Amino acid sequence: MAGSSLHVVESGVLDAAPFLFLHGWPESWQSWRQIMTMASPQVRAIAIDLPGIGESTGDPTDGSKRQLAAVVRGLVETMGLRDLTLVGQDVGGMVTYAYLRTFPDLSRAVIMDVVIPGIDPWEQVLRNPYLWHFAFHSIPDLPERLVQGHQSEYFEYFYGAISADPSKITPEARAVYAQAYATGSALTAGFNWYRTFPHDAAANNEASSRASVTTPLLYLRGDKEGGQISDYLDGLRSAGLTQVGHALVPNAGHFTQEEAPEDTWALIAEFAGI
Fold first, then answer.
1. Closest Cα to residue 91, out of 51, 129, 124?
2. pLDDT for res 226
3. Does some domain include residue 216?
4. I want to staple 222 with a disulfide (CB 3.0 to 4.6 A). Which of 85, 126, 143, 256 is the partner?
5. Contact 107, 120 (CB under 8 A)
6. What's the number of domains the chain is made of?
7. Gap between the Cα atoms of 103 and 81, Å rounded
8. Helices (H) and strands (E) in the chain, counts
9. Where in the sequence is the domain holding 222, given as residue range(s)?
10. Alpha helices in 82-213 (DSSP H)
11. Is 2 a domain residue?
């Protein structure tokens, strides 16, 4: 992205296997801070603010997950990452899926706490009235007008509604996330992730008609999340992913890496053979 700066944070062993963590909405790279601390003695842990969010400044993408995946690919090439494990939660999981479908260089991938646009049970999820914000965020301009200046109050609703233990998302973390979306451009970057869902669904459907993906994938979610995990696994396999494993994080809702960081990292590390 010309004129843009991507904020990258890393820790751990420089010559160890790299793990790149992608955050979701309404959070930033700091949702991975506990996981990165745990992972650092064993791996090279890297996290970013997605384009336009937090300290990633300049021109964001259009919000489509393929464009976001292309930004991640550029970072991977620039940093010379090999034997990479890509881990994405929420929207970051959608980006991880787009990366899997577009670029062949991952050793493994982890998708957490998300449905993939166009992949079952996508249509079922869209009909869920409790996910009203999918439609609201897709409206042009209006979400920015209503949320600007009220980021903390708006985000508080989601921490309370879709986590098993909201206290696990600390007041300090909540303040950091509100600040990450403080500008109008950051709000737009985040809402554009929702506005491009139809485009993402079409791209993912088209990709499913092509060659299968043999990269090992772990589908990970909190055991307090709604829906049947088997529906998500069936959807991914039907879309052509041939090596799909799964695990449930005990006592966690949607924000697994913050609600149960020890168990989350243990499951990821086991999957990666660490």
1. 51
2. 86
3. yes
4. 256
5. no
6. 1
7. 13
8. 13, 7
9. 8-272
10. 91-102, 122-126, 133-138, 142-147, 151-162, 171-180, 184-195, 197-208
11. no
**Backbone torsion region of residue 198, taken as left when φ is above 0, otherwise alpha when ψ lies between -120 and 50, otherwise beta:** alpha
Amino acid, res. 261: P
What is the distance between the alpha carbons of residues 159 and 53, in angstroms, rounded to a whole number?
A: 19
The region that residue 230 occupies, defined by phi over 0 for left and psi between -120 and 50 for alpha, beta otherwise, is alpha
Which residues contact residue 187 at a Cβ distance below 8 angstroms, ignoring those fewer than 6 apart?
A: 143, 144, 147, 148, 151, 181
Could you tell me the two tokens for 10?
């890393």
Q: What does the alpha-carbon distance between residue 167 and residue 18 come to, in Å, rounded to a whole number?
A: 30
In a domain, 1, yes or no: no
pLDDT at 221: 97
Mean pLDDT, residues 19-41: 98
CATH number for the domain harbouring residue 158: 3.40.50.1820
Q: Are 118 and 209 in contact (CB under 8 A)?
A: no
Q: Locate tokens 């709604």: which residue?
A: 226
Q: Record the tokens describing residue 132, joined without a space.
A: 């009203």
Segment 51-78 mean pLDDT: 94
Q: Is the peptide bond before 166 cis (omega within 30 degrees of 0)?
A: no
Note whether residue 3 is domain-resident: no
User: What predicted TM-score, i.e. pTM, was given to this entire model?
Assistant: 0.97
250 contact partners, CB below 8 Å, separation of at least 6: 223, 260, 263
